[in-house]
DNA sequence: CTGTTAGCGCGTTCAT
DNA sequence: ATGAACGCGCTAACAG
């Protein structure tokens, strides 16, 4: 049986949703200014494209009403959220701070905001990624690279600008701003060997990236053809649990000396670890750098100012952050990005410990 | 003249907007599952309220299509963004890291995400606040309190849950999870005076909050009725520019000794500064703690493991973050929050430097 | 330069 | 337990 179409007057239309309490909308502003909502929108977003008159009236109405833009609605309509998500293994560590800081600064001045999520060191959890992508960010910055082929696949099919950082890989998901851990390991090994060190050690985290660094360091140090000055006789590797801190560094040196008593140089994957190694050496009366050379990583703010001053590998994380932000913004605004892979390099800052 | 209504067939209707390329919507999922969009929505958000059959079909369709929720649209419709914004004076400093970490963790497990913005130490910039509020966060967490009455006003009229942290004030904007810098200053002063110190010094940042701490410390230390053990003879105050780091601490001690050569105790507003003071003292052959006592702030991860181990004020920032997150979430879900102000207290961790 | 129309993708509200 | 209709607040696309 066909349903009788209800008479218009009798139509049981659902009661309109209650308006938000204090919510001033762009319509309210437009009404007060005596213009169309669209003109109000333009006055706020592309002021160059409206007349002085309208611009002024809208601005006045905004001031009077205390209007605050609803970016959610704008994002839905324009398909651009002006949000960028950063996925960082560990927010608390000092390592990625400058990166985050640079990201926030560069994005902020371009009108974008940062969603910060913590990914852990292992495989990127699927539900975290979903939660992040659900916000429809205009771009994704990863502190690190995506290890699994599956994760790469997912990110690529997400169809948004992605910048991996903090590493160099042959096949990035999309864009890449980083440096080569292998090169660094090689350079540090060469530096130490040239200094006459033969019993080397490496201290780093337990996660995959740190393990890769360890391997690079070992093979560079033992490589008989690497340098004219010779090569290492032995390289001990110690892993420490995250977060890498001073305590871990102290413990690691203790273990290294137990296993390889004549160790004369240690390369640490973080300045905090290096400070720990130095401290433990001091506690044991080991002279630095005479008996033991120590090289850190990161050139954290304290590295230059502790005693002895830390020799370390310096990375320009601020440049990484700024470049990553620029890449994301360029792509989000539809402009092409010239270089899709950037190696920001590194430098060894020679101070007192090596 | 009245406009002729165009014949329906001739109506020049604008071409519908192009659909997003890869955008799978909930409708697509529903269609594939053979249910209404509404049922698909329920299957994802309140699975308890749909039949097993529908639930399964929807889940299958989601898996097949690779559907990713559009939280923007959801937020617009439901008026709940599941976003929480954190405003931090300085992202790069180590001070607020544990707080941010705890926030991300607690919010994440409740299904919320974090927008991180950097506010600087001064007055909260109006356009930053607008940008943040434009995302319609379900709550705001401030690292610090709002100094200006005007800022308080704005936040209150924004009508969202606000948690201030890291301080205690008489009239918070809304909720407050912090500790009393005055109490800490008093406790440290008492501690040092009881230890026989009489020529005190304070090292802190240049911003208003640090200045308040300095004043509290000075008045507590000089207060003749404060402790049975006596009171300080003099208190020097040194300000350092942000960010407070080891270098600043070293320089500050140098200036203090120039002005007040017999200084026998220094209270630093950050462990990094304290490490700098200790380092500079060592460089000058000043024995710690015999000639100079040093107290830091924060109990950062290295404090216990450097030599000498830092005596410091410990704050449970993880608890602050977790509590703040809980408050926001409770309020966002419409549940009342029992206590609106929480003092998490502090403790003085006595190690080797005082 | 300005206004009109339509719809972004979802959840609320009501009805069944 | 399920579905239909509507609109959250804004901007793209077009017409003038």
Describe the structure.
The structure is a homodimer of 354-residue chains. Chain A is α/β, with parallel strands linked by helices and 354 residues long. Chain A folds into 3 domains: 26-69, no CATH class; 83-179 and 317-344, 3-Layer(aba) Sandwich (Rossmann fold), CATH 3.40.50; 181-314, Response regulator (Rossmann fold, 3-Layer(aba) Sandwich). The first copy, chain A, has helices spanning 26-33, 37-45, 52-65, 71-78, 97-109, 126-134, 149-158, 181-194, 208-222, 246-259, 271-283, 317-332; strands spanning 83-88, 113-118, 139-142, 162-165, 175-178, 199-205, 234-240, 265-268, 293-297, 311-314, 341-343, 347-349. A 6-stranded parallel sheet of chain A has the order 2-1-3-4-5-11, with helices on both faces. In chain A, helix 1 crosses helix 2. The N and C termini of chain A lie far apart (91 Å). Mean pLDDT of chain A is 91; it is low at 1-20. Chains A and B meet through helix 4, helix 5, strand 2, helix 6 and helix 10 of A and helix 4, helix 5, strand 2, helix 6 and helix 10 of B. Strand 2 (113-118) of chain A pairs antiparallel with strand 2 of chain B, so a sheet runs across the interface. The structure holds a DNA duplex (16 and 16 nucleotides). Chains A, B: Residues 1-13 have a biased composition (Pro residues).
CATH fold naming of the largest domain in chain A: Rossmann fold
Mean pLDDT of chain A: 91
The main pleated sheet of chain A reads as: 6 strands, parallel
C-alpha Rg of chain A (nearest Å): 28 Å
User: Helicity range of the residues of chain A?
Assistant: 40-55%
Q: Please give the CATH architecture of the largest domain in chain A.
A: 3-Layer(aba) Sandwich
String of helices and strands of chain A: HHHHEHEHEHEEHEHEHEHEEHEE
CATH superfamily of the largest domain in chain A: Response regulator
Regions with little confidence, pLDDT below 50 for 5+ residues of chain A: 1-20
Oligomerization status of the protein chains: homodimer
Quote the beta fraction of chain A. 15-25%
Shape of chain A: elongated
Counted by DSSP, the helix tally of chain A is: 12
**How many distinct beta strands of chain A?**
12
Largest interface, chains and sizes: A-B, 60 and 60 residues
Q: How many distinct folded domains of chain A? A: 3
Biased composition (Pro residues) (chains A, B): 1-13
Protein name (chains A, B): LacI family DNA-binding transcriptional regulator
Region (Disordered) (chains A, B): 1-21
Keywords (chains A, B): DNA-binding, Transcription, Transcription regulation
């Amino acid at each position: 049986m066909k349903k009788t179409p209800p008479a218009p007057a009798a139509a049981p239309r659902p009661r309109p949703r209650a308006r938000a309490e204090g919510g001033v909308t762009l319509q309210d502003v437009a009404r007060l200014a005596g213009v169309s909502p669209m003109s109000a929108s333009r006055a706020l977003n592309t002021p160059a494209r409206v007349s002085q008159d309208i611009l002024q009236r809208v601005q006045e109405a905004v001031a009077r009403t205390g209007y605050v833009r609803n970016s959610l609605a704008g994002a839905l309509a324009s398909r651009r959220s002006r949000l960028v998500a950063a996925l960082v293994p560990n927010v608390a560590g000092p390592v990625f701070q400058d990166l985050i800081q640079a990201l926030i600064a560069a994005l902020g001045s371009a009108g974008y905001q940062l969603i910060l999520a913590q990914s852990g060191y292992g495989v990127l959890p699927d539900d975290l990624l979903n939660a992040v992508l659900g916000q429809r960010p205009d771009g994704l910055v990863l502190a690190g690279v995506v290890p699994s082929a599956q994760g790469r696949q997912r990110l690529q099919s997400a169809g948004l600008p992605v910048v991996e950082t903090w590493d160099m890989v042959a096949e990035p998901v999309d864009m890449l701003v980083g440096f080569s851990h292998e090169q660094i390991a090689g350079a540090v090994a060469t530096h130490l060997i040239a200094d006459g060190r033969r019993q080397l050690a490496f201290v780093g985290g337990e996660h995959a990236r740190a393990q890769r660094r360890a391997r690079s360091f070992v093979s560079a140090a033992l490589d008989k053809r690497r340098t004219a000055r010779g090569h290492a006789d032995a390289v001990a590797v110690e892993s420490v649990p995250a977060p890498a801190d001073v305590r871990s560094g102290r413990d690691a040196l203790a273990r290294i000396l137990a296993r390889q008593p004549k160790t004369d140089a240690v390369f640490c994957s973080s300045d905090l670890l290096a400070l720990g190694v130095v401290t433990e050496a001091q506690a044991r009366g080991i002279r630095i750098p005479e008996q033991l050379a120590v090289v850190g990583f990161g050139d954290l703010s304290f590295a230059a100012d502790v005693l002895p001053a830390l020799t370390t590998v310096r990375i320009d994380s601020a440049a990484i952050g700024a470049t990553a932000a620029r890449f994301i913004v360029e792509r989000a605004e539809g402009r092409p990005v010239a270089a899709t892979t950037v190696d920001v390099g590194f430098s060894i800052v020679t101070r007192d410990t090596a």
